[in-house]
């Protein structure tokens, strides 16, 4: 499994030409190999940006092929610890980013992202990143 971040899904779902064709190809391979993992907060971020009801419904249907990784209490606690550890080192991140790191660590799976913040997190946290 590979935990796919919001920015990767967004690139792949763009109607306009992507700046990252290699990323889209890598995601297509991951999906074809049935390796794509998603968590609820990523699904929420993707759907939150869609204002038109018909497009929202279409995206929700497409994403329904990817069941959410079940989150547990420890994921949230670890995410908070990660937030605190990074903050002490002057590194900022969102709650969702640290939850992604926590789930990645627990399941021992890489994160597929374009977000450069994860490169900073990796210096402190035990996470693996997938490069396209």
Name the CATH architecture. 3-Layer(aba) Sandwich
**CATH classification class:** Alpha Beta
First and last CA, distance = 15 Å
> Can you give the helix content as a percent range?
55-70%
Main beta sheet, described?
4 strands, parallel
Strand fraction: 5-15%
Radius of gyration (CA) equals: 15 Å
CATH topology: Rossmann fold
Overall number of strands: 4
Q: What best-fitting shape do the alpha-carbon axes yield?
A: globular
- By CATH's scheme, which homologous superfamily applies? 5'-nuclease
Low-confidence spans: pLDDT under 50, at least 5 residues? none
Number of individual domains: 1
Order of helices and strands: EHHEHHHHEHE
Walk across the major sheet and give the strand order. 2-1-3-4
Structural class: alpha/beta
Total DSSP helices? 7
Average pLDDT score? 95
Walk me through the structure.
The protein has helices spanning 6-13, 21-32, 40-48, 53-63, 73-88, 95-107, 117-122, and strands spanning 2-4, 36-37, 111-112, 129-130. The chain is an alpha/beta fold. It has a single domain (1-132), classed as 5'-nuclease (Rossmann fold, 3-Layer(aba) Sandwich). It has a 4-stranded parallel beta sheet with strand order 2-1-3-4. Helix 7 (117-122) links the parallel strand 3 (111-112) and strand 4. Helix 5 (73-88) packs across helix 6. The longest helix is centred in the middle third of the chain and has 16 residues, at 73-88. The chain is globular, with a radius of gyration of 15 Å. It starts with a strand and ends with a strand.
């Amino acid at each position: 499994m590979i935990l796919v971040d919001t920015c990767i899904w967004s690139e792949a779902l763009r109607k306009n030409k992507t700046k990252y064709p290699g990323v889209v190809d890598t995601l297509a391979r991951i999906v074809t190999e049935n390796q794509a993992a998603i968590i609820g907060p990523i699904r929420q971020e993707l759907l939150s940006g869609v204002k038109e009801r018909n497009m929202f419904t279409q995206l929700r249907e497409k994403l329904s092929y990817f069941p959410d990784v079940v989150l547990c209490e420890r994921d949230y606690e670890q995410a908070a610890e990660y937030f605190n550890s990074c903050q002490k080192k002057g590194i900022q991140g969102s709650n969702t980013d640290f939850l992604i790191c926590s789930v990645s660590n627990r399941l021992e799976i890489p994160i597929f992202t374009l977000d450069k913040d994860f490169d900073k997190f990796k210096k402190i946290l035990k996470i693996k990143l997938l490069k396209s």
